[in-house]
Amino acid sequence: ECYVQNTAREYAKIYAAEAEPLEGFGEVPEIIPIFLVHRPANNIPYATVEEELVGEFVKYSVRDGKEVNFLRRDSEAGQKCCTFQHWVYEKTNGSLLVTDLQGVGMKLTDVGIATLAKGYKGFKGNCSISFIEQFRALHQCNKYCEMLGLKSLRTTHQKQRKATSMRSKNLPNPSTVKKTVSKKAREPRDFISSEH
């Protein structure tokens, strides 16, 4: 869980660096960090901790792509989440998709990653490859996709299987994202915990 969310967070940072300078783009979604805590004296020795998100919790995308979500389509945060998915999909040449984007406003948590069967740069996601297929079939570009110059999936999805390599040297290698956790604890009121 930590590995997937923190890997997606690294992609979101690069997306933000490209999108924020664009005139009129505005605020960019942020995937909050999640930490694994070891509690050897507890019956359940491991727990995850993350910042508490206060406000209306919204699913901007769903793992299987089948659910129609008006907040995803009509809200700024939802459109920017869909653009982020499109951006990751294009930057990884259709090999990786950040999915299940949900949270409060522009702060996202509990995301998933789908990869092709062989994985991407040594990383295999926690979602089915079918999510990539469904995203490619259902995604509708919006003004933020256009601002980033992303190619429409309607005209390119048939060509994806034979597309030339568009690998970016700036993209994180998921297999090298640190799997360590913060040693510094924050104030308890800033975090919620989920026991696993």
Automatic annotation (TrEMBL):
The keyword Transferase applies. Residues 156-196 are annotated as: Disordered. GO terms for molecular function: ATP binding; protein serine/threonine kinase activity. It holds the Pfam family Alpha_kinase. It catalyses: L-seryl-[protein] + ATP = O-phospho-L-seryl-[protein] + ADP + H(+); L-threonyl-[protein] + ATP = O-phospho-L-threonyl-[protein] + ADP + H(+). It is found in: Basolateral cell membrane. Residues 1-153 form the Alpha-type protein kinase domain. Residues 184-196 have a biased composition (Basic and acidic residues). Keywords: Cell membrane, Disulfide bond, Immunoglobulin domain, Kinase, Membrane, Repeat, Serine/threonine-protein kinase, Transferase. It comes from the Eukaryota. InterPro entries: a-kinase_dom, Kinase-like_dom_sf. Its EC number is 2.7.11.1. Residues 165-179 have a biased composition (Polar residues). One of its GO terms (cellular component) is basolateral plasma membrane. It is an enzyme of class 2 (transferase). Belongs to the protein kinase superfamily. Alpha-type protein kinase family. ALPK subfamily. Protein kinase that recognizes phosphorylation sites in which the surrounding peptides have an alpha-helical conformation. Regulates cardiac development and cardiomyocyte differentiation by negatively regulating Wnt/beta-catenin signaling. This is Alpha-protein kinase 2. It comes from Pterocles burchelli. The gene is Alpk2.
